[in-house]
Amino acid sequence: MWGLSIEATRSGSLAFTENMLLSLIVPFDHNPGVQQAKKQDFSKRKLTDLPPELFARAKQVESLDLQVNQLKQVSLISQLENLKELFLSWNKLSEFPLEIKELGCLEVLYLNQNSVECIPNGVFAMLGKLRRLNLSSNLLSELPSDLQKCVRLEFLNLSSNRLRDLQGALGLPKLRELYVDNNRLVELPAEVFLNTGLADFRAAGNPLRRPPEEVCAGGLKEVRSYFSQMGAGGQTQPAPRVKVMFLGSSMAGKSTLCRSLRAGHAVEVGVTDRTVGIDICEVKKQGVQMLFWDFAGQEEYYLTHHVFITPHAFVILAINLASYSISEPQSFKDNVSFWINNMMMRAPCSVVLPVGTHADQCPDAHLKEEDINRKAKAMLEDRRSKLEQRISNIKDKDDPTPFTKQLNRLYQLTTYNLTLLDVMLMDCTKPAEIEKLQEHILKHIYNKDLFPNLERTLPQSYQAAESSVRDLKRNKNTPEHGIVDINELKKHTLVKDLDTEDWHSILRYLHRIGIIVWYEEIEALRVKVFTKPSFLITLFKTVVRHDLVRCLEEIPHNILQKVNSLGRQRGAWVSNLKGKATLHNSAIAALAHRSLAQLDVAKDKSIMRALAGSTNKEGELVCLLRHFDICLPTTLASPLNPNAQEFDPGREWSPSRPSVPTLVNRDTAYLFPSYLKDAGVVSNMWGEDNMEDLRVTVYFLPEIPYGVFHRLIVRACSLYSTYWVGRDYFLLGYSSTLVLLRQGSEGEDQYIQIRCRRPAASADFRRSWDLILAVMWKLSELAEQWPGLFQITCSPCRQQGCLHDFQWSDIRNLGGLDIYKVYVP
Ligand SMILES: Nc1nc2c(ncn2[C@@H]2O[C@H](COP(=O)(O)OP(=O)(O)OP(=O)(O)O)[C@@H](O)[C@H]2O)c(=O)[nH]1
């Protein structure tokens, strides 16, 4: 069968249910007249009042669709006394229409996307038959207590309101779906989860303390486990803890700040002492436990940074004022906006404190401080107004309903947003200034508006597990790699009688807060935990580093022997890295042996073998790098990726199809797109662009996240054998069909373009287009890793005769399949 069929694996089954609802509920009637009267559709008519014809046979109406109108009230609706379903979504209701309480037969009520602030008591007590209630995207700050009378309620959507508690939603025995994301909830009630039939639940975007957001992120199963452990073993309130990340360009003064704060006095860092990867340490000050993460400023490390940037962090953005220039826009971009955008895209609700270092070397420090404050505020203001513009563009559409999900995301981004503090000037060489900075940081951390979920309530078992991990780390007998079998770790903790699922829930929580690292989704690492996350960074540093060529050149003979290689091979490794951005499997193993030789890891032969791999087995290091799309298996000859078979135009393509497992042999090598130097070969093969080329240009706001294009290359390689790759170009080939991927910019707009030659035979057209769509799917999957990325606009070419009808519909389908960020203008 021809054609790309994207399975709705991630699609909202809810949307389907809602669309199908009318036909499912209204019983089949052979008389079309009666059937018509039962089901009335007045949606999308710009109505400001209920239409008079509705009342002609008022008692017969059972289902009424009034979505997407301009209704501010629904007077006389109580005349429809047999109404079972009422759809009032996307109207202009600011007050709850009290007449609705007269509709005692109502089973379905949709009032989402209005501006209702309050629902008085006395309404739901009369609506005992209600099964589905959607109140999302309103302005509700509390629920009426008589909502509990709706004992038949199965579906309750309260997302995107201003709710502070869920007391009104307790005691609903039939509830199966509950959505409360984007509210102001601090606690969730245990009763909703324990011994209930709840099957689907969402609570993201709330300042939660009980359970903490890191538990909620694991979904319903983990929330249940949390409450049941709380009931079984009691609860505790651990000391407040914050992850403090030091970010900024190279030589900005991050390590100086980090080490000085840790020591409590000014520490001098040598000019040649560059951070490689990330340094992690724990500091306790005035009752707050701070996890300091010092990120390296050199560009080579940005690629792995995003893996470790987590939400709700306090970010110290170091800016070297001595090298900052007010008159050069690029200076603001490199030193400030790049980092702020990065945080907004990856951790949209973090708090950023810009620290202007080297103030002592800068007579005009105050001018620069002012300039940075002004430009940074303008940048956030610009983002805010773009978001508002997007929201109003969607709301002004004749039919905004397909964009509901996007709209909710946009609302979330406007309310739950990055906080940028004023620049603080620093001379890092002065102890008094370090002290001042420490006070400043603590003052902000204790500000409940900035860190509403600093305090958390945890089951005793969670706390006990965390303490055990800390003890283990402190224990001198624990090896430096800190890798522990998950069952061994359980034995070390004081929580032995937990069942496996509950134990895994604890591990996931500890992973999310950064105490351990557990990649259960990587087959080779499923039963292992990194109790020392910094070791993982040490591992990444083995191959992701600015001086990799030198490291390869310096591999000594004794290490070469460990991986069965000679100096001749080392020479080839260097030239392949320089010329093809490719590292041989044995080269990675040798690098791992070398960089871990100084650590006690080398003594543990089995751990070492597992990490570094061998000629016929992929090492865990490579598994990790592949997991984060940093490299892909290849051969040193063309085609680059002979294993890739995911896309077969003769068969249906589905994004859920598992990729082909990698066979490792003596020739296996890995391509690291980030080490590619130029794109000459690709552009030579492709030649000039043609006006008739099929193409889709994907624009990103605020910008393309760092590394997305290279990760896209890695993912797209699983579709079909590649022909060649370059730094900003990539050519994917299936027989005579070539698909070009290119990243570029037009003024301020950054884009990735996917291009394909217009086939001569129309029979081949579909195949080319399917390849483009498969790449787009990969791109949209990737984009989900940057939750604050607020717009991706896909714009297919529009030349006459080039855009077929199915192109539009396919892209719309992609957009409809839960890829909220894909937006077709
Ligand atoms: N005079 C002066 N020197 C500073 C100040 N802050 C940092 N330095 C020096 O600037 C140099 C770079 O500082 P680092 O802290 O290593 O910079 P970094 O941001 O960690 O750099 P990377 O490791 O490349 O990411 C060091 O030699 C510091 O001693 C300051 O406020 N005044």
Question: What can you see in these coordinates?
Answer:
This protein is α/β, with parallel strands linked by helices and about 800 residues long. Helices cover about 35% and strands about 15% of the residues. β25 and β26 form a beta hairpin. The two termini are about 30 Å apart. The structure holds guanosine-5'-triphosphate (GTP). Guanosine-5'-triphosphate (GTP) binds near residues 248 and 273. The site of guanosine-5'-triphosphate has 27 residues, from α5.
Overview features:
eight-stranded parallel β-sheet, 29 strands, leucine-rich repeat, 16% strand, binds guanosine-5'-triphosphate, seven-stranded mixed β-sheet, disordered N terminus, globular, nucleotide-binding, disordered C terminus, alpha/beta, 825 residues
Topology:
Blueprint: H1 13-25, H2 32-38, E1 39-41, E2 63-65, E3 85-87, E4 108-110, E5 132-134, E6 155-157, E7 177-179, E8 200-202, H3 213-216, H4 220-233, E9 235-236, E10 241-247, H5 254-263, E11 278-285, E12 288-295, H6 302-308, E13 314-320, H7 329-346, E14 351-357, H8 365-395, H9 404-415, E15 419-420, E16 424-425, H10 431-445, E17 458-459, H11 460-474, E18 483-485, H12 486-492, H13 500-512, E19 528-530, H14 533-541, H15 548-553, H16 557-562, H17 567-580, E20 582-584, H18 585-597, H19 605-612, H20 620-627, E21 632-634, E22 669-671, H21 680-686, E23 694-701, H22 708-716, E24 722-725, E25 729-734, E26 737-746, E27 749-756, H23 765-783, E28 791-796, H24 805-816, E29 822-823
Helix pairs in contact: 4-13, 7-8, 8-9, 11-13, 22-23
InterPro entries: Leu-rich_rpt, Leu-rich_rpt_typical-subtyp, LRR_dom_sf, LRR_domain-containing, P-loop_NTPase, ROC, WH-like_DNA-bd_sf
Organism: Anguilla anguilla (European freshwater eel)
Keywords: Leucine-rich repeat, Nucleotide-binding, Repeat
